[in-house]
Recover the amino acids of this structure.
C-alpha cells in the first residue's frame, strides 16, 4: 500500500502548529459531530470518556459536537449538550480536564439551530424556531422575523457562551456559522429576506455573524482563539453557493475576519473539489488566500478504505499540505471507525483501515 505521496502527507500532518493563539502538536483536527449522549444537556462520564479517548488517540485539536447557547430555541433535542447551566458547565469542565490530562487540546462548537429546529422540539416545546426572516430552508414561514432587540439578545447569548467556555478551561471556541443553522440563515439570501441593515447584499448579510464574532472576541480577549466554521452548502441543499466568485467570497469573509476570526474552518463535503473554475484551490485554500488567516480543510478525508489507493485524492491532500493551502485537516467519521487514525497514518499501517459505517455511532457512549 505504498504511495509516494504518503510521506508528504505524514510530514505535513505531524508538524506542530503555533499560530493565532493555537499551539498544537500536529495538524489533525477531530471534526465536530452531533452525538446525542448528554441527557438533559449535561455531558456525563460517558462523554468525558469519549473525548478522553480522542485525545489519547493523538489528534492535535478536538472540536466538540455542537453545544447549545443559552437561548430557548437553540436546541432541538434534550440529549444535545448545553454550554450554559451549572451542571452542564461542570460536565464540560470534567471533559476539558480529561482531554488536557491526555495531552490534547479542545474547543467547543457554539451552536443555535435557528429555523432548522422543528416546532415543538424538546427541551423547550413552547419556543418557536427563530431566524432572520422566520423562514426555514424550504422558504416556509415558521415565525416572524427577529427584531433588532431579539437579535441583540442572541448575540449576547453567544458572548456569554464564549465566557463560560474560557472559564471552564477550553482552549478556544468554534462558532458554528455553517450548514443552514442560525448564523448561516443570515448569510443565505433564501432565508434572509430582510430589508434592514441585516439583509440585502452579501456584505450586509454577514452583519449578524460579524456581531457574534465581535461580541465573543470582546468577551474573551485578544489571546483566546476563535475558529469560525462556514460552508457554501446547506443541509439538504448541497448545491447552494453563497459566493459564486472569489470576489464575492472575499466580500463575504472580510467582515468576519475583521470582527476577530483567528481560524476559518471551511466545510466542504469533498476536500479535493475545487471551489471555483480555473483554480485547484478548495474552499479552505481560497479562504486562506483571501484573508491570510489559517484554515482547516475538511470533507471525506480518508472516509473509505480504498482512499489510500485513490492516487488523485492522495496527491491532492499531499499538495494541500505541502503548498500550505490549508493549515489543519479535520477528520470526522473516519476517526470514529478508526480510533487509532493518527498512529495508523504515522506508522503507515493502512491495511487495518475500516470504512465508516453509521452503526459505529451506537458504540460511542
Amino acid at each position: 500500500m505504498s504511495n509516494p505521496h504518503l510521506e508528504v502527507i505524514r510530514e505535513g500532518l505531524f508538524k506542530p502548529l503555533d499560530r493565532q493563539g493555537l499551539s498544537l502538536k500536529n495538524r489533525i483536527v477531530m471534526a465536530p459531530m452531533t452525538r446525542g449522549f448528554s441527557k438533559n444537556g449535561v455531558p456525563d462520564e460517558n462523554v468525558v470518556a469519549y473525548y478522553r479517548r480522542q485525545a489519547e488517540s493523538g489528534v492535535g485539536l478536538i472540536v466538540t459536537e455542537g453545544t447549545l447557547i443559552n437561548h430557548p430555541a437553540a436546541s432541538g433535542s434534550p440529549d444535545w449538550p448545553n454550554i450554559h447551566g451549572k451542571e452542564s458547565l461542570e460536565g464540560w469542565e470534567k471533559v476539558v480536564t480529561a482531554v488536557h490530562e491526555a495531552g490534547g487540546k479542545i474547543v467547543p462548537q457554539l451552536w443555535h439551530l435557528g429555523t432548522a429546529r422543528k416546532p415543538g422540539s424538546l427541551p423547550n416545546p413552547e419556543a418557536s424556531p427563530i431566524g432572520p426572516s422566520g423562514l426555514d430552508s424550504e422558504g416556509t414561514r415558521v415565525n416572524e422575523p427577529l427584531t433588532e432587540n431579539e437579535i441583540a439578545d442572541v448575540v449576547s447569548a453567544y458572548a456569554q457562551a464564549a465566557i463560560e467556555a474560557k472559564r471552564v478551561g477550553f482552549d478556544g471556541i468554534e462558532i458554528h456559522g455553517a450548514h443552514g443553522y442560525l448564523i448561516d440563515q443570515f448569510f443565505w439570501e433564501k432565508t434572509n429576506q430582510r430589508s434592514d441593515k441585516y439583509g440585502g447584499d452579501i456584505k450586509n448579510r454577514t452583519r449578524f455573524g460579524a456581531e457574534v464574532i465581535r461580541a465573543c472576541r470582546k468577551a474573551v480577549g485578544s489571546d483566546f482563539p476563535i475558529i469560525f466554521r462556514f460552508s457554501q452548502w446547506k443541509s439538504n441543499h448541497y448545491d447552494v453557493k453563497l459566493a459564486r466568485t472569489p470576489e464575492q467570497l472575499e466580500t463575504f469573509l472580510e467582515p468576519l475576519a475583521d470582527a476577530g476570526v483567528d481560524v476559518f474552518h471551511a466545510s466542504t463535503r469533498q476536500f479535493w473539489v475545487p471551489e471555483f473554475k480555473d483554480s485547484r484551490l478548495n474552499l479552505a485554500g481560497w479562504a486562506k488566500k483571501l484573508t491570510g488567516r489559517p484554515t482547516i480543510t475538511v470533507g471525506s478525508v480518508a472516509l473509505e478504505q480504498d482512499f489510500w489507493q485513490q492516487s488523485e485524492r492522495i496527491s491532492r491532500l499531499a499538495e494541500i499540505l505541502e503548498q500550505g493551502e490549508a493549515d489543519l485537516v479535520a477528520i470526522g467519521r473516519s476517526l470514529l471507525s478508526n480510533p487509532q487514525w493518527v498512529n495508523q497514518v504515522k506508522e503507515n499501517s493502512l491495511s487495518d483501515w475500516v470504512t465508516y459505517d453509521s452503526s459505529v455511532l451506537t458504540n460511542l457512549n
Remarks:
- Residues 114 and 182 are 4 Å apart (CA to CA).
- The first strand starts at residue 17 and ends at 19.
- The chain has a mean pLDDT of 95.
